[in-house]
Amino acid sequence: DVKVTQSSRYLVKRTGEKVFLECVQDMDHENMFWYRQDPGLGLRLIYFSYDVKMKEKGDIPEGYSVSREKKERFSLILESASTNQTSMYLCAITVGRSGNTIYFGEGSWLTVV
Amino acid sequence: GENVEQHPSTLSVQEGDSAVIKCTYSDSASNYFPWYKQELGKGPQLIIDIRSNVGEKKDQRIAVTLNKTAKHFSLHITETQPEDSAVYFCAAGRNTGKLIFGQGTTLQVKP
């Protein structure tokens, strides 16, 4: 089974704090993604990475950065958290030769107060 | 930019009835169309997908149809059960792993 692990399920942070969301996969997959999910907006792509030390902006990268120092770990960083970043964050990987099939982690609920 | 429109946003059916959710996409180069089911407090789970070289795919009570000319695809759930209650997302994408998601449909199956 494909396993995508987001270690922090629920976080409450203060405005201005630096926040790290970690994602780990156990199957040596190259492609990893960070999405955020908001009611009525569906899932929106923040950043993705096709390999170690590689990163590309998604549709809504503003206010976020990422780090991929090891193949199995992809971190999402909020340099200075703001209340409009309160959301559900989902990490995902792609599986398969065509690279389409996406598998998600369980999500990290972040509240910024 | 590219987008995917999903309707309806909420759907309530009686147990045993069928449920249909529809999506339209704008990127004519899209060739992969998955559907995800998300239960409360969990991440989305892939339930069925279809590629552009076929028009229909079925897996037990779930089926997906694709009309590439019209750029729309649909999820059909037959003989609905209470455990089908969840949020369903459609998505469309190319062979890059990047998907554009619909806004989601909250399905409620009433016993």
Topology, please?
The complex is a heterodimer of chains A (about 110) and B (about 110).
Chain A: E1 4-6, E2 10-13, E3 19-25, E4 32-38, E5 42-49, E6 56-57, E7 65-70, E8 73-78, E9 87-95, E10 101-104, E11 108-112
Parallel strand pairs in A: 2-11
Antiparallel strand pairs in A: 1-3, 3-8, 4-5, 4-9, 5-6, 7-8, 9-10, 9-11
Chain B: E1 4-7, E2 10-14, E3 19-25, E4 32-38, E5 45-51, E6 56-59, E7 62-67, E8 72-77, E9 86-93, E10 99-101, E11 105-110
Parallel strand pairs in B: 2-11
Antiparallel strand pairs in B: 1-3, 3-8, 4-5, 4-9, 6-7, 7-8, 9-10, 9-11
Q: What this model shows, in words?
A:
- The complex is a heterodimer of chains A (113) and B (111).
- Helix content of chain A is 0%, strand content 54%.
- In chain A, a hairpin with a 2-residue loop joins strand 7 and strand 8 (73-78).
- The mean pLDDT of chain A is 91.
- Chain A is mainly β and 113 residues long.
- Chain B has 111 residues and is an all-beta fold.
- Chain B contains no helices and eleven strands.
- Chain B has strands at 4-7, 10-14, 19-25, 32-38, 45-51, 56-59, 62-67, 72-77, 86-93, 99-101, 105-110.
- In chain B, strands 2, 4, 5, 9, 10 and 11 form a six-stranded mixed β-sheet that branches.
- In chain B, strand 6 and strand 7 form a beta hairpin.
- The radius of gyration of chain B is 13 Å and the shape is globular.
- The mean pLDDT of chain B is 93.
- Classes of the chains: A mainly beta (113), B mainly beta (111).
- Chain A binds chain B through residues 4, 31, 33, 35, 40-45, 48, 58-59, 90, 94, 98-107, and chain B through 1, 4, 6, 9, 32, 34, 36, 41-46, 49, 89, 91, 93, 95-99, 101-104.
Helical content of chain B, roughly? under 10%
Sheet with the most strands, sense and barrel status of chain A: 7 strands, mixed
Give the N-to-C terminal Cα separation of chain B. 41 Å
Rg of chain A (C-alpha, Å) = 13 Å
Structural class of chain A: mainly beta
**Beta-strand percentage of chain A?**
over 45%
Mean of residue pLDDT of chain B?
93
